[in-house]
Specification:
10 helices; alpha/beta; 3-stranded antiparallel β-sheet; 250 residues
């Protein structure tokens, strides 16, 4: 197969599947991973994909934010492992903030009823999960249909007066250079206010989000105390992250 033919197939796969994984593509096309990386570099120069950690995503996806159901099904096994590892970092009592997200939602489902926690959240699904098991304060504001998270001034005004023992955050992308990012500025503003409100901050993010920088930053990595991720990051990426924060691999 000629390189141009392979690149055309890679571009088609990226549009169809939403992502190209370097190692999987190398195995499928029976070429070295370096060959696939060069192909993706060529496609990026043509404006067809954007390189991310471990592969590439189609440029069409940059303006697309998947809904809660689709995100929950993506890397579900990794998210479950991350949530279980994050459970060990929960305080035994006190105040807890849970950001809207599918991995934080999995963590919420694990919180036992006998744990003495007051929970603050901007997530409708998380508030619904915990309402019968914990003291829950749901942040007000406009509810984004895509993420079911409350945003804008009602949430921001309340967060400005809070001090929370520990916060657990989701993200659409994270990297050493750009920090923690999300596509929507309104949601990013609430996430940033949550980060400021917490004494301890824990980021829950699977490896596919590493290097996938989004439009709006809500925290520098140095503001995050612990990043809980899965084993998909290589040693170089973990070392790079450990220079700014602590990494826990699930």
């Amino acid at each position: 197969m000629y390189g141009a033919e392979r690149q055309q197939l890679l571009a088609q796969r990226a549009r169809r599947d939403g992502r190209i994984d370097v190692m999987a593509a190398a195995e499928e096309f029976e070429v070295a991973p370096e060959t696939i990386r060069r192909d993706l570099g060529a496609l990026e120069r043509q404006g067809l994909v954007r390189r991310v950690y471990g592969g590439a995503i189609p440029v069409e996806r940059l303006d697309f934010e998947p809904g809660v159901t689709q995100r929950d099904q993506t890397n579900a096994a990794e998210k479950e492992r991350i949530a279980r590892a994050a459970f060990d970092l929960l305080p035994t009592r006190g105040t807890l903030l849970l950001d809207a997200g599918t991995t934080t939602g999995r963590l919420a489902s694990m919180i036992p009823a006998d744990r003495e926690l007051t929970v603050v959240t901007n997530s409708l699904p998380i508030a619904s999960q915990l309402a019968g098991r914990s003291t829950v304060h749901m942040l007000g504001g406009r509810i984004r249909g895509t993420t079911l998270a409350s945003v804008e001034s009602w949430a921001l005004n309340v967060l400005d007066g809070l001090t929370v023992d520990a916060g657990f955050f989701g993200t659409n992308g994270f990297s050493v250079d750009r920090g923690c990012t999300t596509p929507d500025p309104a949601e990013s503003a609430v996430k940033a206010a949550m980060v400021r409100a917490c004494r301890r901050r824990v980021l829950l993010a699977d490896h596919s989000k590493y290097g996938d920088d989004q439009f709006s930053r809500f925290a520098e990595l140095a503001e995050i105390d612990v990043v809980v991720t899965d084993s998909g990051l290589d040693d170089a990426a973990v070392e790079e992250l450990n220079a700014q924060t602590k990494v826990v691999s699930a």
